[in-house]
Amino acid sequence: MSSFWGQYLHLSLFGESHGDGIGAVLDNLPPGQLIDTDEVKAFMRRRAPGQTPWSTARKESDLPQILSGLYRDHTTGTPLSAVIRNQDTHSQDYSNLELVPRPGHADLTGSVRYRGANDPRGGGHFSGRITAPLCFAGAVCKQILARQGIEITGHVKEIAGIQDREIDLARPPVAELRTVAGKAFPVLDDARGQEMIDAVEAARMAQDSVGGIIELVFWGLPAGIGDPMFGGLEPRLASFLYAIPAVKALTFGSGFDAMRRRGSENNDSPQFLGEGDTLHIRNKTNHGGGIDGGISNGMPVILQVGIKPTSSVSLPQDSIDLSTGENTRLVVKGRHDPCIVPRALPVCEAGAAIVLLDSLLTSGLFDFDKTGRDSE
Amino acid sequence: MSSFWGQYLHLSLFGESHGDGIGAVLDNLPPGQLIDTDEVKAFMRRRAPGQTPWSTARKESDLPQILSGLYRDHTTGTPLSAVIRNQDTHSQDYSNLELVPRPGHADLTGSVRYRGANDPRGGGHFSGRITAPLCFAGAVCKQILARQGIEITGHVKEIAGIQDREIDLARPPVAELRTVAGKAFPVLDDARGQEMIDAVEAARMAQDSVGGIIELVFWGLPAGIGDPMFGGLEPRLASFLYAIPAVKALTFGSGFDAMRRRGSENNDSPQFLGEGDTLHIRNKTNHGGGIDGGISNGMPVILQVGIKPTSSVSLPQDSIDLSTGENTRLVVKGRHDPCIVPRALPVCEAGAAIVLLDSLLTSGLFDFDKTGRDSE
Amino acid sequence: MSSFWGQYLHLSLFGESHGDGIGAVLDNLPPGQLIDTDEVKAFMRRRAPGQTPWSTARKESDLPQILSGLYRDHTTGTPLSAVIRNQDTHSQDYSNLELVPRPGHADLTGSVRYRGANDPRGGGHFSGRITAPLCFAGAVCKQILARQGIEITGHVKEIAGIQDREIDLARPPVAELRTVAGKAFPVLDDARGQEMIDAVEAARMAQDSVGGIIELVFWGLPAGIGDPMFGGLEPRLASFLYAIPAVKALTFGSGFDAMRRRGSENNDSPQFLGEGDTLHIRNKTNHGGGIDGGISNGMPVILQVGIKPTSSVSLPQDSIDLSTGENTRLVVKGRHDPCIVPRALPVCEAGAAIVLLDSLLTSGLFDFDKTGRDSE
Amino acid sequence: MSSFWGQYLHLSLFGESHGDGIGAVLDNLPPGQLIDTDEVKAFMRRRAPGQTPWSTARKESDLPQILSGLYRDHTTGTPLSAVIRNQDTHSQDYSNLELVPRPGHADLTGSVRYRGANDPRGGGHFSGRITAPLCFAGAVCKQILARQGIEITGHVKEIAGIQDREIDLARPPVAELRTVAGKAFPVLDDARGQEMIDAVEAARMAQDSVGGIIELVFWGLPAGIGDPMFGGLEPRLASFLYAIPAVKALTFGSGFDAMRRRGSENNDSPQFLGEGDTLHIRNKTNHGGGIDGGISNGMPVILQVGIKPTSSVSLPQDSIDLSTGENTRLVVKGRHDPCIVPRALPVCEAGAAIVLLDSLLTSGLFDFDKTGRDSE
Description:
4 copies of one chain form a homotetramer.
Chain A: E1 4-5, E2 10-15, E3 21-27, H1 37-45, E4 65-68, E5 70-71, E6 74-75, E7 80-85, H2 107-113, H3 131-147, E8 151-159, E9 162-163, H4 174-180, H5 190-205, E10 212-219, H6 233-241, E11 247-252, H7 263-266, E12 270-272, E13 281-283, E14 291-292, E15 295-296, E16 301-307, E17 317-321, E18 326-330, H8 341-361
Antiparallel strand pairs in A: 1-2, 2-3, 3-7, 4-7, 5-6, 8-9, 8-10, 10-16, 11-16, 12-13, 14-15, 17-18
């Protein structure tokens, strides 16, 4: 564990917010897969800072330099690695944080864990910046999954208590969900999206921040992906999504609502669709979010991720001064998003893509012949 | 993954509901630890079936036979293994489930995953029975953790929408929480407990089932346990707790409530308690559930686990007949709990104990001299 | 690590020589594989003690009881587990070893490692007895590999300096090697085998022991199995074979002879066999033992395992008395093989079978449809 | 597996010989360790090409750029990463190798494994160049081990059949072994070293190559490091050392000589050194190479690594032409070492350092306070 993940597909993330560079290594990718690097960059731009009023003013091109694992635009199968240089660092903004830890951050816990040796500038390795190479890795996996017929969509389900249109779990609106990634604000209902933007702006004006909920929907995952117990899709997805900074809640399907239903209402009954063929089974409902016993059942897989409000706020906060041993007030400088939920959406999608590709590769159902090469 | 778990401490679970036996292997335990097997059995009885009106009538002594790893009542440090024989199996109750899968179960997904070769009797390896050896392993870890000053408590927070008394996250009622394990119904507020029992009984009379929420509180975990990213306490705990059958939701600290607060309200500010010593830091609030950046901050660690209503209900349900290719109605025979939440509480505690011991062992902070031996 | 192994296929071994039982858990086996348990037992008998003049007098039926993972004679795909009860234990023979460690054993190192808490009886978890469940696991994997066209053969290459007939690495005698497992003494040249038996008997009469070398040959492994670096067949096989007690040397192909050749002599040149088809490539020589860059090249894979002379000898030996702090003389009681090489042969074959099946499963080349079921 | 390794300490290697860069990520290093980067570079120069008559003419400064994990010259504890740019690549030298594989290389097996998608230039990821970042990682671990009192030395034991002076396994010449790393040719006996150099030069003049044997000696490893079975020092070291390109043989202690001794001769008897204190136990002999039952016994740990002759030789060799389906003659262009043994010595030392640090970290015996900081 720590900053590597994976059963078969293997991801290593490295870097600190204000160090020389951050990056990712992705090992055991299927070989010969065509990768469109423009599409990778387009995906990464959805996470990149400095692009919208509600994100940090830090400008980072955040374009990855691929060092290995891609040859003539196809995966070699040997480790794919990419590095992103840190450019627009204002380390002096953080000079007080070694002594006065920011509430809600890892400044204090990271220092205790690493005996005071961790890089404190900008949160160091705990910074949300490490999600940039994570998005690189996820973008590559997404392209490979797409050829297997698996698609990952998502939307901002809630910000500051304002909810996007609710989706029908058994019949999510696939066409609409596909449009979300291309929108300026990633919701289904743009009017609600505008309300969210206004709430973010209000928080920003108040030198404060807001949180929210992301909902992901996976399409085309065949039945039979996942394993019992610790190899189930829920524990695998949770082991990754909970590693994303600011995630504090994760639910599947109808989430806590399920706990208030009776079993007869909550159970998802399979039904033949007339053809008398297991390939044409569909559940009447989808409260379980497409997963039974840790294994995909062929329905859309649906989950919700809770993102806490950004910890870095400009309002003065109570903290402690480790040099004096006195309680003190802290004013956090630096540039911070009043709401990271929209930028966290592609990060969650990327994480899900990595988990699903790993699960598919260990299922024996991955089709290695679908490479996207001309010669196919 | 699959049915093994762990970074340093390593757990393998095996067995099928109606096979010859189920069991656990726990490797890399610290050596020389005194284990009170009566206490282990007492812990396991909290999960055992057939003891209360609201649990299945299946009677299983469920007493583990320890085959290795314990010598003169102390851990050897080499693999600890225990086997539980299956006794009171009524396999004929399940004879129709190979062809007509139970909604909400792994009958269909397990069959697809294992190409029809899995043991379908009683859910096979997907059965909740596999949590018996899990509780054995957790009970051993709990005793070892206790000597390190780490304690795991919990209560049924909600069943069928009826809520137990809410706890103050920053100051959970430790004395009261300690009494919960010994109660006939594991809640803080016994009157609410009686309402829950009534709701379970009503569901049972209606041949139906109800779900609920479990809340765990960990005490004494020192600051600095956990790692960044995938090694964080949240992803590690989630990778285990989501492996427990029927878990569909997991939140930390104040859960989804945090997503509706502003950052300035949600951040937990550290404060010196007058002594000017980092050993005496306390957060004013505990919305983060004792974890910042994946690492414990010294506050009680608090999380909530959502348990869906038991899938097996006696009410007739829609399903499919794989032999005829026709939709059909299924009546589930066999003996099933109308509510598994009270029995799931020790299972969640056991899982948490295993995760915390693994995290402590990989932190470099485990004190190997605290063994409980007389000679200490 | 410790007593579990595997990338995809996962093995846990447990037990102590004089404890209640020993066993194995094998997770992630391909489902639906027909397993002939009589054949498993026949394989295990090749390792079982008490059968030949040159093995220990300890009688153990060593028959495994399968607890899970096999349903109607086919693997379920969920964990396969088996337990072997310890029966004929003479623990009192070992009563002096806690204080006077046997030279060449883990008595002293195990005690230091486990802070004196390990089970010292008969070597505890360090005993060669733990190879009985290892053989169970390997016997199962061997049957599955056979259906994929992969076969593991071997012979005793040397005992006490007496060598069996040398094999041609490029054209090992497959028919003869297949007969070895059925022989009373597992060599190619029975006359040499008789010399080895005599040497073992001479050592036994002298209250001493002898060591030797095992050679394994794997047939039918397709080209392309294995990964670069740590995933290579050599490191994977070595990580397993070096875990077998008494193994102190391991070489591939022509071993140290290769280091005395020039590159032009040592390189194995691929050649078409006339058909102009990559399926009909054959190397002219096989000094590399069928592996280039960690990956199988389609030639027979060949390796040699050095087994040191049995550490337990009845001759008095120098040791120390930990209770007095004085040097002393030790007479090892108990029943011990004067030569374990013949019994180590099936153990090495079993280990190789587990490694090859894991490597095949992670290669994407395993054919899940070859199950041995009637319906195939 | 594949290109990552480790139980607790975790190494990822990436890169291809003629790609943009190669590198390493090392996660879970102990925090706060002072790292002397000049010393790291000095260590890496021992492996660097282009420095001696017997190494390839390829000039690579091979200096690593550290991107993360080092802050103010101390490890942060979060992932340490370094990148080395490839500079002096002559890819056209390799243009024929996609179609005519080099005997003894992974050209053909790598192509089969990766379905023709691997980067064939200079061997791609299978190139010995990937050992440069491996040496970076090892150099860092060596400095950390030194503070724990653990030292790794080694010498070229044999090249082209010419042997360096034999060492006494029970009393290796520590002072002399320490001088080896600083010598122009890394042997104990310089006269023998000159004979080896002459043999290498003779091979070079003959457009051919020679192999040899490396011997490593580890000092100061306390008794009790390592675990039973797969966690033993032998399997752990083997799982790493066999990943180094060209390694085809590995033995411990007295290697195959042990297999020709009787047990009474081969066993290493522990003896008190007069003080009556377990800290003053010493074995009379060291045939086992300092390891009993996989666990260090306090004696120097000694092993031998066989390095085959360089596969790339300029002499014409038999091979096949995959484009024509005809057998052909291959002339390997490019710049290749007539003998890689001297350069492989620091690579083996680096690998051993990583394994020993991982084993020490998982043993609970690592002293985190020994950081090399001024404040110590």
